[in-house]
Specification:
With about 100 residues, the chain is an alpha+beta fold. It is about 35% helix and about 25% strand. The longest helix has 18 residues.
Length: about 100
Amino acid sequence: MTDAINRCSAEETAACCCVDVGTILDNKDCTASYQHVFATQGEAESMLKTLTDKAKSVESEPCVINHSFNAVEGGIELTADFNFSCEAESLIFQLGLR
């Protein structure tokens, strides 16, 4: 008698249209980037604080945050990169922004 369910691996699974999580989240993309133009410096700084607090809430190891404020037509542009220790944290952070 043969098994009705195939043994699972990263390439194939017993269920249709399923893949091993390790195939998708391979820790190659641990950075989440954010860019937006705000009317004032204060609004941009407030958003950076909100984003930083959100990053800290999902990090397992300290998240490295690099940011800049640039004067552009229409206001202040906030650009920030959040470098997490693993890709899952980056994904959780990005999904939390939606």
